[in-house]
Description:
With 209 residues, this protein is α/β, with parallel strands linked by helices. It has one domain (3-130, 182-203): Rossmann fold (3-Layer(aba) Sandwich), CATH 3.40.50. It is 33% helix and 20% strand. The chain has helices at 3-14, 28-35, 48-52, 55-59, 75-82, 109-115, 134-152, 158-162; strands spanning 18-21, 41-44, 65-66, 87-90, 94-96, 101-105, 120-126, 130-131, 185-189, 198-203. Bound molecules: iron/sulfur cluster. Iron/sulfur cluster (SF4) binds next to helix 7 and helix 8.
Amino acid sequence: MDIKVQKTIQALKANNMEVFYAEKKEDIVGIVKELLNKGDTISCGGSVTLQDCGVDKLMRNGDYNFLDRTKTDNVAALYRECFSADAYITSANAVTQNGALINVDGNANRVGCIAFGPKKVICIVGANKIVKDVKEGFNRVKTVAAPKNAVRLGLDTPCSKLGHCICVDGDITDGCNSQFRICSQYVVSAYQRDKNRIKVIITPESLGY
Ligand code: SF4
């Protein structure tokens, strides 16, 4: 196993997160299935990673009560319902080698559920998300994750045109005043008091952005 991946796994475990290693991205669906029970109420944050590894399809296969924001007229109510879900499935914007998950949202429905609420959080990450430390993690958000997601979602932000934030070298909270700003809420998940609530599935392959 790659030393960087190995180091990150040990650090996540030391921070009270349960870690599963998927040698190939095709192994991830099987691991997620083992972590869920049929009939579980589940939901997810929007994520290219979940599409890349097939978990997106698994969530919608009828075995689970999937809270789907694309199938409701009341997204705000659905987002609140997610707080009492059995499981919330997401990726991370970055994972530090000392065992912290870094996530940044526009309106906090995803980072809110990672921090508190759902009984378990299943976080799927490719090795491309591993960074040295929090500073590098936020830099990754401003130069990779936010611009690419802004393009994917068709958001009219400066980064969707430039390919990076207008404030790359500033404070992490610096940025644009766009009404579509994608990086407004910053959450770093370090040592967890609720042991193993967060379950990280990590693969040496590249997933999402
Ligand atoms: S602050 Fe604005 S320009 Fe910068 S990454 Fe966030 S959405 Fe993009």
